[in-house]
Each structure stands twice: as C-alpha cells, then as structure tokens.
Amino acid sequence: MRKKLDALGISAFCESMGMMLQAGIQTEEAVGLLRQENPNPGPLETGLGHMQQELEMGGSLSGALEKTGLFPGYAVKMVEAGESAGRLEDVLFRLGKYYAGQKTLSEKLKSAVAYPAAMLVLIMVVLVLMLVMVLPAFTQVYNRLTGSLAYSAYRYIQWAYGFCWTALVVMALLAGVLLLGLALWNSKKRAAVENVLLKIPATGHLLREMAMYRFTAALATFLASGEVQDIAVMESIKMVGCKPVEEKLGRCLKHLEEGHSIAQAAYEEQLFEPVYGRMLLAGERSGSLEPVLWRLTELLEEQCGARTDRLVGIVDPLLSGVLLVTVGVSLLSVMLPLLGIMSSIG
Prior knowledge:
By secondary structure, this protein is an all-alpha fold. The chain has 14 helices and no strands.
C-alpha cells in the first residue's frame, strides 16, 4: 500500500491543477505538464504517470486520483462531487486552501509538542549534571576543608540531593507520559488520548476548535461542489474526529431532517460562538452562505493557531521556571554551608 501524500503535497497539486484548468488546459494535459515539471522521480511522479494513462483512456480525475492510492478519500470524494456538479476548478482551489490550512495547523501542533519535549530533556540533562558532577564536587570540597561534613552542611547537601532526585523523577515521568501519549496518538488508541485531553480545559478547547475548523472547511468545500446541505453535513461530520463536536453535529443533522437550514440548526445548537452563528444566519439569508463559511474557516484557523501559541506560551515559562528554581535551590543548598564555613574562618 502506497503512502499518501502529505497535506502540503495535496495542496500544491490541487492548486496547480485548478490554475491549469482555469487556463483552459485539458485535465490529462494538465497532469502531463505537472509530471514534466517534476525532475526527481518519486511516488508522486509515478502516480502522475498512472493518472495520465487513466485520463487518456477516458477515466475521470477522481477515479485516477483514487487508483494512485496517494490521495485521501476526502479529496477523491470532493473531486468527484466537483466533476458531477461541473465545478471542478472551484473544488480544486478550495481543496488547495483546505489542505494548506491543515498543514499550517499540523506544524503549529508539532511545535507545541516539540518545544516542551526539548525543555524536558534539557531539564533532565541539567539535573543529571548536578547529581553527577556539581554536588559531588561540593561534597569533596567540604570534606577537604573540615575533614568530615558538619551536621548542618551534611543536611544541606542531602536536601540538595533529594530535591534534584525528586525533580529528575518528576521530569522523567512527564517525559514518559508525553512519549506514551504520542505513541498512542499515532496508533489505534488515539481516541483514548483525545478523551483525556478533552477533559483538560486548555487542550479540550483547542481540540474542539480544530474539529470545528475541519467541519466548516469540509462543509464549505462540499457546498462549493454543488452538494445539497443534508448530504454535505453528513459527509463533513466524517472529517471532525472529536466526539463532543460530532454529537452536536448529530443534533444539527436532526434539525436539517426536520426542514431547518444548516445556519438555523447551527445557531439553535450553539455550534459556533454567537457572533459567528449570526454571521452564518446573515450569510444564508443574503445568499452568501459559501463565502461566510470560508470566512468562518479562516477565523477558526486563526483561533486554533492563536490558542496553540498561547498554550506554548504557558508551557514555555513554566518549564523554564522549573529549571531555574531547581538549579537555583540546589546551588543555594550547597552554597549555604560554604558561606557558614567562610564566616567562621573569618
């Protein structure tokens, strides 16, 4: 089974195809041009070759995408809907924006995890150096000065050792939890990790906002392809990946079955913040539902990015503070006996 393209690769492909089709170039010719522009043969180059053959045999672009195995089901389904509605160019541009946004959010989340992980490693390295080099060095100094450690000096040194060991164990546990969480996140146990993160206010809000971003972007793309609202909502729910949001959307779907519009259902179920809900209602009444949905998608993407930055901004000084306090308290503990000895000598 071939590995699927990443979000950036899909975005670039969709944008390029959309521009070529907009310029009046036929689909098979556009794929051929993209293939010629890639000098380094790879999975995409091979996939483009298969796509070109499929298109020259009279196949559809969606069918060609599916047969390569490089594109996710969502992209294939959207292209198929765009072909059926005669709005393939619009759908390709929307998909390009959607996957570009997904890439941006993915990079922000990786940064949000990578920085705390690096700080934890740094703290553990400093603590190990304190335990292996710094504290033993001070102990030897006291032994040479006094012959044997006085009771007070011994107590301070032992306290410093205990503090460093405790901090090291705590940091190691946090690092272990982080590694375990990442391993589970990339496995079939992802739902269990999400359930834990949803219970934490900071991460729970972020996950819900990201789920709403994925839903709104998918819904806007489906509507741009000419799909009816009920089916567009049902298909977009598959992109959510967050149980609390899926439950809300399920209730919205029931409103749609009762004859309500998506804007009314979203407003009644408080799917978005009140100001966004009113934006959606106004857009629907003015016949501008799609542009409003894309504007909401942009706003939600900005919110997710800002919330991720705030989360990193909280973790950064917190871990830096732990490092400074640990080193400071440990050094103070070993310096106090030295100050006492110097004052008694003076």
